[in-house]
C-alpha cells in the first residue's frame, strides 16, 4: 500500500513512558476549513511494535484533533479518540492486549463546518504507566480505502 507522505502523521514513531505526545507531522489545511464533507475520512493508526504491558497499569489513548498552530498547543479541538487499558478495561476503553504488531486503530473524522475548524489536523498519544511504550505509523485515509489494506511488520516477506 502506498501512503502519501503529506497525509502521514508519523512513521514508526516510538512513544515511551507516561505522557502526552503529538505526532511528528501535522496536515496543514492552509487556512481554517471544514473536512470530512464529501467522501468520509479517517485516521489510521497502525501498531508497528507491540504495546508494553509489563507493569499492568499501562493505558494508551489515540486522539485526532484540530489545532490553530502546527505544535498543536493552541485552539485544540478533539475530533475523535480511542482508549485501550491494560488489565480489565472500563467502558468505553478496549483491552490493550489488542495493541500488537499490525493492529489498526481507526478513528473516523466527523464532518465539520468551517466555524468549528482550525488550520491544522494532528494526532496525539496519551499514555499512562511508567513502563508504557508503543511504536505506531499513522495516516489520513478515505474510509473506502481502509478495508482494502493489509498491514505487515517492516521487512516481512510474503511467500
Q: CATH topology, which one?
A: Jelly Rolls
For the record, the CATH architecture stands as Sandwich
Report the structural category.
Answer: mainly beta
Distance from N terminus to C terminus (CA atoms, Å) equals: 17 Å
Largest sheet: 6 strands, mixed
Report the average pLDDT across residues: 87
Shape: globular
Description:
The chain is mostly beta strands. It has one domain: Jelly Rolls (Sandwich). It has 1 helix and 10 strands. Strands 2, 3, 5, 6, 7 and 9 form a 6-stranded mixed β-sheet that branches. Strands 1-10-4-8 form a 4-stranded antiparallel β-sheet. The longest helix has 4 residues. The relative contact order is 0.35. The mean pLDDT is 87.
Summarize the structure.
The protein is mainly beta and 159 residues long. The chain is 3% helix and 43% strand.
Name its key features.
1 helix; six-stranded mixed beta sheet; four-stranded antiparallel beta sheet; Jelly Rolls; mainly beta; 159 residues
SSE layout:
Elements: E1 8-16, E2 19-22, E3 27-28, E4 41-49, E5 59-67, E6 77-85, E7 94-95, E8 104-109, E9 120-128, E10 133-142, H1 143-146
Parallel strand pairs: 6-7
Antiparallel strand pairs: 1-10, 2-9, 3-9, 4-8, 4-10, 5-6, 5-9
